[in-house]
Known about the structure:
Elements: H1 4-14, H2 19-26, H3 30-38, H4 45-55, H5 59-63
Helix pairs in contact: 2-3
Amino acid sequence: DYSFPDILKDFLISNDLTQTSFARAIGAKQSQVSEWLKGKAKPGYDMLKKMSITFGVSADYFLGITDIK
């Protein structure tokens, strides 16, 4: 099972993004992104929507429903 932390980690690596640059782009705190990567928290609906719109990636990709960005 491809979990959200794995998906996010792969996304950051494949797009050459740091936690900080990703957080800035979506209006989150770096500490929030760190918690997501550790699996201690997950982004809410509004944050997921921002991630999808900002990076032009389907929410299904971040949710692990599809591997198509």
